[in-house]
Amino acid sequence: MSRPHEQHHPFFSFGNPFRMISSKGSNLSQRLFSLLNKFEETLAGRLRKLSPKDQDEVLSLSWMKLAMESLCETHNDIKTLITELELPVCDWDEKWIDVYLDISVNLLDICIAFSSEISRLNQGHLLLQCVLHNLDSTSSKQFIKARSSLDGWRQHISSKNPRVESCCTILNKLVESLDLPKVKNSVKGKVLMRAMYGAKVETVFVCSVFAAAFSGSGKKLLNINVADKYIWAQAFTGLQTSVNGEIRNVFSSERFTVLKELEAVDTSVKKLYPMIQDGVDPVKVEAFQNSVSDLARRAEGLSQGLDLLTKEVDGFFHVVLAGRDTLLGNLRESSTGSDAMLGCKVERVQTS
């Protein structure tokens, strides 16, 4: 079994793939080389864009939104590359199809888990709205209701989501799939497999960061070793080191949460709670009102950030689903001929 800390086998360990077709003309070889370079340089640029400028960016909802956008773009680039390679699905090795379909199922499951957790976090906003509504009055009865809602919010936010907990097993499967099938006779296939490796590395990294953030456990973080020969390797290593390092630092400090906007709300809750527990001192009315305003502003920021992140996770879900549906549709077309094996594969996948 492949482990996160182990060195994965270089994809092009068998030498220069373009050497195989050099006798057929350099134009084709150069074209494939350009397509691969374009994909890898674009991926490197995306990874550099994700590299946080300061520690406060790590696990902010805006950074998580950007990370999910990046995944959507990379997976769309894979679909574009398949088209540009002019590699019809009937030419795909059966092992590639198995790998692609298995990965897509795992990614769909992860998206569902993430969407579930974002929705759960957003439900806490209703409790905060109850708090703010009750604090419109300074009566002791309303303060008791506000305290109860704050207790409910902290209990709700600190509870565990079993769907997120299951992501660890799914991520381990994705790490194992980083060792792609070796391609012997198809130069285009080698280009595709190398590009898919880059897409999968970014995907596993981002999903492991999300799983760690949502679960409140640094054990979900993965360290992926990438060979230096990839154009995007240095950008990825720098990104992984800075993001994982900061997340582990936050976990070691035993904070309530590693999500920045959620932590900001919790800070306001901690400041406000003693005030409504002991009653508002007339001398401190202004400080009380400021604390209420701070909570309202931060709660709204958290809610808006979660809504935007929901859209990006849903978008990634549909990108993965669309790619899977396209492949299955092409397999159906292939199976209308004499290839009964592919027809059986489509039927088996649809019933699983």
UniProtKB/TrEMBL annotation:
Its main location: membrane. It comes from the Eukaryota. The keyword Transmembrane applies. Keywords: Membrane, Transmembrane, Transmembrane helix. It is found in: Membrane. GO terms for cellular component: membrane. It is a single-pass membrane protein. The keyword Transmembrane applies. Pfam families: ROH1-like (PF05633). PANTHER family: BPS1-LIKE PROTEIN (PTHR31509). Belongs to the ROH1 family. This is Protein BPS1, chloroplastic. The lineage of its organism: Eukaryota, Viridiplantae, Streptophyta, Embryophyta, Tracheophyta.
